[in-house]
Amino acid sequence: MQSSYSTHSQTLSPSQTLSQVLWSDQSYQWARFAFFAIAGSIALAVSSKVSIPALPVPFTLQTLVVLLLGFAYGPALAGATVGLYLLQGAFGLPVFQGSPEKGLGLAYMMGPTGGYLVGFFFASIFCGKLAKMGWDRRFSTMALGMVLGNVIIYAFGLAWLGSLIGWDKPILQYGMTPFLIGDLIKIAVAVALVPMIWKRVNRKS
What we know:
Blueprint: E1 5-7, E2 10-12, H1 18-22, H2 29-49, E3 51-52, E4 59-60, H3 62-73, H4 75-90, H5 105-109, H6 114-132, H7 139-165, H8 171-175, H9 180-203
Antiparallel strand pairs: 1-2, 3-4
C-alpha cells in the first residue's frame, strides 16, 4: 500500500478516515465533528428500531452501525458520537431498542442490555483506532476488526448480564448465541462495503 494518496487537491494519508476524506476542509473541523456526531447518533437510534427477520431470532442493525461508525470516524469522533447517543438515551429520549416500551433513561440503561451499551462505546473507539492503522482498507483486516469489535461488545454485555441475573443462568444462551448468525451477516456486509469504498476513493487519486 502506498504511503499517501491524492484525490483532486487533497492528499490522503494511510491514517485518514472516510469521514475526513468526505469533509476535507481543515477550516471547519468543528462543524465536521458536530455534523458527523449528530448524524451518527441519529443513525444509531434508527438502527436500533430496524428489525431484520432471521433465525433463530430477529436482529437489529445497531452493532453494524456502531462498528462502521468506528471505522468511518476514527476513535475520537466515534467515541463522541456513541457518547452523544448514550447521553440522549440517559435523558429519556426513546433511542434504544425496545424503548419506550421497555423503559426509558437511566432505568433502561441499568437493565439487562446496559452492558452492551457500554460495549458500544469502547468497541467504536477500538474500531476507530484500527481505522487509523488502515485496517478498513483491506477485506481481511476489516473482517478481523469487525470480529474483535463484536467481541468487545459481547464482553461488556455478558459481564453485565451475568452480574445482573446471576452466573448460574445460561448467560451465553441468553445474551450471545441467538445473535451470532445475525452478527455474521453484518460482518459480511461491512467487509464487502468499506474496503470497496476505499478502492473507489483510491481510483480517483
